[in-house]
Amino acid sequence: MTHSEQTYNQIAGQRVSRLEAISDGVFAIALTLLVLDIKVPVSETIKTESALFDSLCALMPKFLGYFLSFMTLGIFWTGHTTQFIYIDKSDRRLNWICLFFLLFVSVLPFTTAFLSEHIHFKLAIGVYWLNIFLLGVTIYLQWAHAYRHGFLSGSKEAIETANKVIRKRVIIAQTLYGFGALLCFISTYVSIVFIILVQLNYALALFSARRKR
Prior knowledge:
- Helices cover 79% and strands 0% of the residues.
- By secondary structure, it is mainly α.
- Helix 4 (60-86) runs parallel beside helix 9 (188-204).
- The longest helix is centred in the middle third of the chain and has 27 residues, at 60-86.
């Protein structure tokens, strides 16, 4: 490796603020694109209230996919911003780990549309689960890299506590998502409902709130 390459590697991807800015932008666009898969029923055959109601009911898989993915993106955005409460330094590798994470964020509208269009197929569940799995892997690697290279701010106790909590949350969540995906062999709808329940728990901390009581 030449001296110029070493110098570039040392100076590239240093600004954490740029990572946060592009991350918020990609999440905002992905969240907006999700709803574009839901098309308003427009047909010359719709002449009665019942026909309109039937066409609306036909969109339920689209709404289910939209809600599922909105929750997914919301949870990963929250996890991403939580990590950056502590991450105050960056390097070229962390920069690219974050960008690959955003790659899987940006592809979620497609996997959502694929799922809602083919909601009765196990393959559609598998493709969607793979998207969530890759999101989990990259956000875990992002934190692991920042922790290993000392890019975190705060007291040693606070950092160690955050490290345990963040790693545990990602691992448990991915395990539950994997189990939820396997439920598609029983029913694809059972699989989706289970994943939504997992997401509602992570979003609203339902079980955590019960334990505190």
